[in-house]
Specification:
750 residues, alpha/beta, Rossmann fold, five-stranded antiparallel sheet, 25 helices, elongated
Length: 750
């Protein structure tokens, strides 16, 4: 039985409506007139899919709880470094500025902190290239093991003794593997009494050993200081290459400057083991500071070594110059320089020293610039002016006597060599002092510290996000379903698109669902009889009134009820409409003309046998096929035996004769016919009745299906009078339309 229902609102119909239905569909009018109606539609859709929303949201919440349970907490360690800006040396160190390099930039130090030079040392020192951890059951194993607090290894769950379930521990001090086995997974299986064996990717045993002693075999070497596990427990081992280990460390490590041009660097490291990440970050800062001091000390050491090689040669040069000067004076007697000669000597020495300094400056500039650079040309111009002054002084020397010239030349060599030697000697002493007091230009402000709580979203936030995502996913699912579901849910669409009136809208009845279930086991009841105050019955009473006027101009008092497809509620409309008609003292007969799947006999609790098939075959009379019901003045004609050729049977003249005789004996004849689009039976029957009503079920079919059904009946010469809109969701309509709802409730109170 089709236990579904429908709903309609009266409108103009007749042959004009039938004709308009054959024309192209009229464009639908503006969907909503007020903003409140659109909001009501949204609320109605949400209420209609409330269980889907609840199910998806609950699933998302469960997944969120699962994520909170299995996700590994990640902690964050941070520390602070200060990069001090190099300032110009004062006092006796001013001359060392070119030797100590340029000012340090923060960006350069950030790059150094992330370099392989620093991180590689940390990886090697802390053995971060060595991975050793218990093997846990995927998804939940790590979460279970992490929450275990016993002193001995946990008992295996579900007999899975190969996995670790908490309390296991391993400490590998060293692990060496062949180059081909770098970054490859190895499996260590614990044995009895501290014994173990190691398997490669192909499950081949490559090494056997015992805790506390080094084991070496086939290029593999390992020393395990501690192993606590049940025999048979598996551990995962891996020896990473230096590049991979450094990359993994760099991925969880970050450096940034705190504040613009503050010179303060903030270092942070993420990891699952708080004590380990604090140790690693501290070692990174210590290694960085150490290399900074070593670099600055190395610069002074390199310069000092160069000076140490130059000083002996300069000392020899000074001694040679002094010896030559003293020897000449002794050979010529005691000679003193005149005041004029002393002035010339001083000027020459100053020019020579200035020229030496300018040549050194030019050599340094040539390392970065071409000879055409303005700075180099400026130095060249200064050298040219010094050469001109030297020539002037040399011309003055040339005017002196030969003895004075020789003394002047020897005195100049002594003065220049002595001054150069003295300056280099002072520089060497300053570098030794600088090297001894080198502290670097970076310092640790805050050592590594790990926060108590894991970073990332808190469990309550994760659950909130999961619930929000569940709601969003449910909205998307609803949107997809609504987009794919182009069905009629509003009777106004039928009237506007097909031009046919909707005579009644029948709301959904939960009681009818229960009655239909009982009818399947042979104890059916009519809703109009058992629950006359039900809203669906009241809608059928409205249909009864409307049909009274709609059939006034009809030539026959018979009514065909059909639909476009099965399970629309045709039988529900037929039997209950017949009941409400009989309740106003009308003689009514319901004809079950569905000779393929008719089931009205179950609804009334009577036998199928002796019905239409027997009458058309001439095996029964009209009196034989009329069956009384529990409703006074309501009769039923069943299908009889299901025939092999229903359409041919309905086209027989005795079927038309039967309908004519019934119309003569009863006030109203209601014919329940099969679906229009499935078979041609409804079109055959429609020629012998006074009016045809088509049942449409809310949310069951698209408007094109109804349009095709109407066209099919029209092509057969049958006029569809209008529609009954069945199974309307009243609660949804109350949200959707507010006070404009199609169903109104007005019941009596005692």
């Amino acid at each position: 039985m089709d236990n579904d229902q429908s709903k309609l609102s009266p409108g103009p119909g007749g042959m004009a409506g039938m004709t308009s239905a054959l024309l192209p569909p009229v464009q639908q009018a503006v969907a909503e007139e007020e903003e409140g109606v659109a909001l009501g539609e949204i609320i109605a859709v949400l209420m209609d899919y409330r269980w889907l929303i609840a199910a998806i949201s609950l699933l998302a919440l469960v997944l969120g709880l699962g994520w909170v349970f299995v996700s590994k907490p990640v902690y964050r360690a941070d520390g602070l470094l200060q990069v001090e800006e190099k300032k110009g040396a004062g006092g006796m160190f001013k001359a060392l500025e070119p030797l100590l390099g340029e000012d340090t930039t923060v960006s350069a130090e950030v790059e150094i902190l992330s370099s392989r030079m620093v991180l590689g040392r940390v990886v090697s020192k802390l053995k971060l290239d060595l991975i050793a951890s218990p093997r846990t059951l995927p998804v939940i194993g790590a979460a279970v093991a992490r929450r275990y607090e016993g002193d001995v290894p946990n008992s295996p769950w579900l007999g899975l003794s190969g996995f670790a379930w908490g309390g296991e521990r391993i400490q590998v001090d060293s692990l060496d593997v062949p180059d081909s086995a770098l970054d490859q997974n190895l499996t260590l299986i614990a044995g009895e009494g501290g014994a173990f064996e190691i398997l490669d990717d192909d499950d081949r045993v490559v090494l056997k050993g015992k805790v506390g002693s080094r084991s070496t075999e086939r290029g593999y070497s390992i020393f395990i200081a501690e192993l606590r596990a049940r025999p048979g427990t598996e551990f995962q081992l891996m020896k990473r290459s230096a590049e991979v280990a450094i990359t993994n460390l760099r991925n969880s490590y970050s450096v940034k400057e705190r504040g613009k041009k503050s010179g303060v660097l903030e270092l942070s490291l993420l990891g699952q083991r708080p004590e380990q990440i604090a140790l690693v970050l501290d070692d990174i800062m210590t290694t960085y500071v150490r290399q900074n001091v070593e670099r600055r000390s190395a610069e002074a050491e390199k310069t000092l070594k160069f000076l140490d090689t130059q000083l002996p040669a300069l000392k020899t040069q000074v001694d040679t110059a002094e010896a030559a000067y003293n020897s000449y004076r002794q050979s010529r007697g005691s000679l003193d320089l005149s005041l004029e000669t002393q002035g010339i000597l001083k000027n020459l020495v100053d020019v020579e020293n200035a020229a030496v300094l300018l040549k050194q400056e030019r050599d340094e500039l040539r390392q970065n610039f071409t000879p055409e650079h303005p700075r180099i040309q400026a130095v060249d111009n200064k050298l040219a002016r010094l050469n001109e002054r030297r020539k002037q002084f040399e011309s003055d020397v040339a005017r002196l006597p030969d003895t004075q010239q020789t003394v002047l030349r020897l005195a100049r060599d002594v003065e220049v060599s002595t001054r150069l030697y003295t300056e280099l000697l002072n520089t060497a002493q300053q570098l030794r002092v600088s090297k001894a007091g080198t502290v670097g230009d970076v310092r640790v402000i805050d050592p590594a510290a790990v926060g108590r709580d894991p970073v990332g979203a808190k469990p309550i936030a994760i659950l909130g996000i999961a619930l929000l995502l569940g709601l969003m996913v449910s909205m998307i699912v609803i949107w997809v379903l609504r987009s794919l579901r182009v069905v009629v849910e509003d009777p106004e669409i039928i009237e506007s698109q097909l031009g046919l009136p909707v005579y009644a809208t029948v709301p959904h009845s939960k009681i009818e669902v229960e009655l239909h279930r009982k009818a399947q086991v042979g104890s059916g009841e009519l809703l109009a009889v058992a629950h006359p105050q039900e809203d669906a019955v009241e809608s059928l009473r409205g249909l009864r009134t409307t049909l009274h006027f709609a059939l006034l101009d009809a030539q026959r008092n018979s009514l065909l009820i059909t639909g476009s497809s099965p399970s629309l509620g045709k039988s529900f409309i037929s039997k209950n409409l017949g009941a409400v008609l009989a309740q106003v003292d009308k003689r009514v007969v319901i004809v079950d003309a569905d000779l393929r799947r008719g089931h009205l006999h179950k609804e009334f609790g009577i036998e199928r046998a002796v019905g239409i098939s027997e009458y058309v075959a001439g095996q029964a009379t009209l009196e034989d096929i009329l069956k009384t019901t529990v409703v006074p003045k309501l009769w039923v004609v069943t299908t009889g035996q299901i025939p092999p050729n229903p359409s041919e049977l309905l086209m027989h003249e005795r079927f038309a004769m039967m309908l004519g005789e019934l119309a003569a004996r009863f006030d109203t004849v209601i014919v329940d016919a099969p679906p229009v689009l499935a078979v041609s039976d409804a079109a055959i029957i429609g020629r012998h009745v006074g009016a045809t009503l088509m049942v449409a079920r809310a949310g069951k079919h698209p408007i094109r299906e109804l349009e095709q059904a109407v066209r099919r009946m029209s092509q057969a010469g049958v006029q569809v009078k209008g529609f009954v809109f069945n199974d309307l969701n009243v609660s949804r309509q109350s949200y959707r339309y507010g006070y404009k709802g199609y169903v109104y409730r007005y019941s009596y109170k005692t």
